[in-house]
Amino acid sequence: MSNTSSTEQSKTDYQEYLERRQVKAVPLNVALKSAEALLKSGSPVKPFLVGGAGVGKTQGLSTLAKKMGSFLVTMMGGFATAEQERGVPVINENPDGSISFSPAARDLIAEPMAELRTNKKIVRGDVEYDSMFILFDELNQADTEVLKIFFSAFSSSSLPGLDWSDLPVHIAATGNPPIGGYRKYVKPLHHSDAWDRRLGFFYIEDATYPAWARWAKKDGGVCGEVISFLKSEPQLLHPGRNKEEKVPTPATWVAVSQILSYGLDMKERATAAILEGMLGSLTGLKFRQFCLEGGSDALSSEELLELPWTQVQEYLEDIVKTGRLAQLAMTIRNLADHICDIRPDVGDCATRCALILMECPRDTQSVWNTAVKESKERGSAQREAKITDYFEAFDTEISHGPAAAGWTEMTIAASNFRMR
After folding, report:
1. d(CA 68, CA 61)
2. Helix or strand or coil: residue 56?
3. Biggest CA-to-CA distance, the chain
4. What pLDDT score does 274 carry?
5. Residue 113's beta-bridge partner residues?
6. Counting Cβ atoms within 10 Å, is residue 278 exposed (0-12), middle (13-18) or buried (19+)?
């Protein structure tokens, strides 16, 4: 009989790697605050964000560069060649058989750096930058020769033919943990004392749906179809990879949202091929089916509360009539979460919520009570108390409105249904 506990068996490769390194992962926002403090301190130690694909390392540091008023230049460790880093243009053979010269990667830094040295600023359009931010993306996937060249950027503020020791230039890097499919590509920089003492390693937690969804709604501009689908299938935000299986990452879902903004027809086979190519066959098929069954026509919580009642009522009647009860349940759950998170003025939303729920079948009505209860329990005691107080006022508002009798009857019936 094995003595291995179920907890140990359920650990991911990443969690096991962190334990071997005796380090802890932190949320992305914490890592970015630490990186900002490190950069502003002028320390010779540079931030190195480590995490799986799509957790937001590159996008986060890019946003940090903008916040710091720095002109961003990104160097790709996984694709750079030693010749490019030394300033030698590389000859490329193109797919059509023609030959072209690739500009030296160093030149990407040299031009804006010369402008910064001469003018004390870099101007691009209407934007002025008073510093530079050089991001070495996928640093630990660079080959050995390239790493030797990159090292001077971290140790002496220079690259071949360039020296910025007298300029306001920030340096940071990202990388992947040496696990799974990365094992054969990633260099263990922490094994090198020279690298180890020049990098501040910040390990990023794997993305979770609640944290990602907050970002997606507030800053990410991710479409409702993607957010609603992942709310119903949160394990598909960043599933584990088996061998060569194609699986999505959080960054993939953002890209899918961008693709959908072009108005793709979900009925077209070409759209199916795009989704399956980006998400993998099974996930692509499942997401497309979700959209075809009405996910793409779903009203957001804000729309349910703000659109004319006749329009909302027609929408709910159509869902019930066509039997899309899973979508309806998800719509009600999303609405309950929205109310608990935002807590809009009860006078503006209480009666509307009552009318919405009275349009739903009884089993779907019970979803509302369950979702509110779960939302209370997800946060702190202070949050639970605020939500409890809010819903006391919420119920009072309804009891004095046109939906009073129906709301009381519905609440009792839904509670009885849930107890069966």
Report:
1. 10
2. coil
3. 80
4. 93
5. none
6. middle
Q: How many residues does the chain have?
A: 420
Taking CA 348 as the corner, what is the angle to CA 344 and CA 350, rounded to the nearest 5 degrees?
Answer: 85
Give percent of the chain with pLDDT exceeding 90.
25
What is residue 262's three-state secondary structure? coil
Based on the number of CB atoms within 10 Å of its own CB, is 320 exposed (0-12), middle (13-18) or buried (19 or more)?
middle
Ranking 22-31, 254-263, 277-286 by mean pLDDT, the lowest is 254-263
Lookup: tokens for 86: 């030394």
Give Rg (Cα) of the chain: 26
Task: Please name the amino acid found at residue 281.
Answer: S
Give, in order, the Cα–Cα distances in Å from 17 to each of 11, 183, 368. 10, 12, 41
Q: Which helix (H) or strand (E) holds 103?
A: none
Tokens linked to 317: 């009647």
The answer to whether 162 touches 99, Cβ cutoff 8 Å, is: no
Average pLDDT rounded to a whole number, residues 206-219:
79
**Alpha helix (H) residue ranges in 52-205:** 57-67, 82-85, 105-119, 144-156, 193-196
Residue among 39, 77, 38, 37 nearest 58 (CA): 77
CB atoms within 10 A of CB 140: 25
Is there a contact between 327 and 295 (Cβ–Cβ < 8 Å)?
yes
pLDDT of residue 190: 82
pLDDT tens digits along 65-85: 999 999 999 888 765 555 555
Dihedral Cα 21, 26, 28, 32, nearest 10 deg: -90
Q: Which residue has the tokens 């779903």?
A: 298
